Amino acid sequence: MINDFIDVYKNRHDYAKDWKKKNPDSKVVGYMCSYFPEELFYAAGMLPVRILGSHEPQNVTEPYIFGMYCPFSRDVLAQGLQGHYDYLDAVSTAYPCMHLGQAFDSWTLHVTQKKFYVDMPNRVQTPYAVPFLTGRLEETKQEIEEWIGREITDSDLKEAINVYNENRALLREIYEMRKADDVPLTGTECMYITTASLFMDKKDANKLLKETIENELKGRKAKTADDTRLMVLGSENDDIKFLNMVEEFSAVIVTDDHCTGSRYFWNPVEEQDDPIQAIAQRYIDRPLCPQRDYPERKRLPYLLDMARDWNVAGIIALQQKFCDPHELDKVALLDWFKENDIPTIYLELDVTVPIGQFKIRVEALLERLREDELW
Amino acid sequence: MAEMEEQTIEYWRWDEGNWKNPDMDFKDAEILTAGIDVGSVSSQAVIMADGELFAYGNTRSGYNSRDSASNVMNMALEAVPGLKLEDIHYVVGTGYGRVRVPFANKAITEIACHARGANYMYGPKVRTIMDMGGQDLKAISCDERGKVLNFVMNEKCAAGTGRGMEVMADLLKVPIQKVGEMSFQVEKEPPPVSTTCVLFAKTEALGLLKNGWSVPKVLAAYCSAMAHRIYGVVKTVDVKKEFVITGGCAKNSGIINRLEKELGFEIYKDTKVDTQLAGAIGAALFGKALYEKSKKK
After folding, report:
1. Percentage above 90 pLDDT, chain A
2. What ipTM goes with this model?
3. Multiple choice CATH, B128-263, 1.10.10.10, 2.40.50.140, 1.10.1760.20, 3.30.420.40
4. A244-261 pLDDT, tens per residue?
5. A367: which chain B residues are within 8 Å (Cβ-Cβ)?
6. Phi and psi torsions of B34, nearest 5°
7. CATH classification (class only), B2-123+275-296
8. Any B CB within 8 A of A367 CB
9. Which residues does chain A have within 8 Å of residue B286's beta carbon, measured at their own beta carbons?
10. With contacts defined as CB-CB under 8 Å, which chain A residues touch B112?
11. Which residues of chain A are within 8 Å of residue B111 when distances are taken between CB atoms?
């Protein structure tokens, strides 16, 4: 079951192509930012899939995007330029950071012409954010309807909301299980599960998640209380190799704050009479990306609560090189965890993970946390 | 012929060798431990007798960390007639090749080992350690026992580290031991070169020489750029005036004096121990603590 998620993670394109074969009248839409309201597209019978990089060095993006944009955004664009997403019927995003925005623009110029751009407000901490986004989602809904030639009913929307909410609840249940002293799954395994869910039809994912929880995770001990409990947080991260390396040092990652991890699914859509407004409310209320964490900095107390609730001993903050929003977060974040006595290290990610250079930093953090061992 | 001879001189070569404390006999010691620091550029093996520096070897690292560890350990043992590897109770590996020391009982990061080693070399007053190694920089803050409280490393680029200085010594044909001293033979301190990137700095240095700069002036500009870069890393930890430098670059007064100006205070230099040994000393001291713990069990 966990192996099924690993299989989807590794063969994400085959999964989408198979889905398309099974649903010949339906469309697959790729999206670039976790603020993208998938429910609208799922309600129209489509499969939304997150576009992620491959973590392999590439040489195709130089003419299409400046080198100053983050390695992740360039890796994402490379996937399109290399034809890996040739099955997409449309490409889309909610208003993302500037870097992914450039990758999106370039993609629509050079890879997939059909596009949807959801005007997600950047300033979410204002009472105008929900009505604004509700209006924008109505517009997007109309665009989709014109494209597919049929109406998306409230009933379609409510069903999509239910499927997505179930997915969120199941993923959350797995995260709750990670609060145990003997953690039933490693952080690496959990990353496979959450990331694979980004590519899957949520009905398929939900079925698999239920089976995994019932038949594999209950009563399982993947790590013990002797392993050092860590949290990872920061920008987009599906660096399996990195997590695996960390967990080889008798450590276990028990929770995260990444847009490909907990930030993606943490809060459900709360029921309201108007399903579009309910969806808008959910995306405005969701755990914040640092790009939208202003004027009040709400992420810090939220992250501290999470670190305490999951009883972590230390934190590894990860940032894609040149990522402006997370660079802006760095100083406040490090000061905050220092004030609250949670040792934290900050690492800069690139397309490929420099395992050797990260190893020493991670090991040194673990030596700090296991202070009695050497003294 | 003369030209060929000049080509073979390796100006970057720092002093390699081994040493034994003439006032000590290993047979008197209850616990013998060793620390092996296999770095990206240099390797050190330190043997400690009951927690005191007894012997060491110091040499260039090869591409194979296992061989480097064995070679440097043999160097240290050669300084002590009669002493064999089997006589050593506990061995700790550290440095870039720490997990590849074939005869080590445990591997510990050089961050922990440099802090512990600096505590031994300079005493419990030390609070900030700057390890200036061959290919990276580590700023470490520690407590009175030499226990790490926080650390910062330079990013993945090796700019502004010992290897860069070696390249510059070779380029300018100045023995590395003379670089610091020669960098002060200038009437007026020049501005630093614009980058410490080894490749760009090399190109820039050649350009400056062509523009008529003297070799000492180019060295001054490069040392100054390195001090700038090191200061940039060190100020991201909680810098205290009880500040020491470990690693090979600590022997370069051209960098140290300029760094002191940036810091605004004097760096502690009162130790008789070679600064390149700090990591291996820390490793050997951890080895003693771990051996004693294992005996108590």
Report:
1. 91
2. 0.83
3. 3.30.420.40
4. 999 999 999 999 999 999
5. 108-109, 111-112, 148
6. -130, 145
7. alpha beta
8. yes
9. 374
10. 364, 367, 374
11. 360, 364, 367
Give me the residue spans of the domains in chain A: 18-153
Q: What is the mean pLDDT of residues A146-150?
A: 96
Show the 3-state SS of chain B: CHHHHHHHCCCCCCCCEEEECCCCCHHHCCCEEEEEEECCCEEEEEEEECCEEEEEEEEECCCCHHHHHHHHHHHHHHCCCCCCHHHCCEEEEECCCHHHCCCCCEECCHHHHHHHHHHHHHCCCCCEEEEECCCCEEEEEECCCCCEEEEEECCCCCCCCHHHHHHHHHHHCCCHHHHHHHCCCCCCCCCCCCCCCHHHHHHHHHHHHHCCCCHHHHHHHHHHHHHHHHHHHHCCCCCCCCEEEECHHHHCHHHHHHHHHHHCCCCECCCCCCHHHHHHHHHHHHHHHHHHHHHHC
Same CATH topology for B2-123+275-296 and B128-263? yes
Name residues 295-354 of chain A within 8 A of B (Cβ): 338, 343, 348, 350, 354
Chain A contact for B205 (CB, 8 A cutoff)? no
pLDDT, tens only, B218-243 = 999 999 988 988 888 888 888 899 99
DSSP assignment letter at A26: -
Q: Is the pLDDT of residue B154 over 80?
A: no
Nearest Cβ partner for A367 among B96, B109, B290: B109
B153 touches chain A (CB under 8 A): yes
- Assess if CATH 3.40.50.11890 describes domain A18-153: yes
What would the pLDDT profile of B249-287 be if each residue is shown by its tens digit?
888 999 999 999 999 999 998 898 999 999 999 999 999
Query: What gap in Å lies between CA A243 and CA A253, rounded to an integer?
Result: 8
Rounded to whole angstroms, how far apart are CA atoms B279 and B116?
Answer: 8
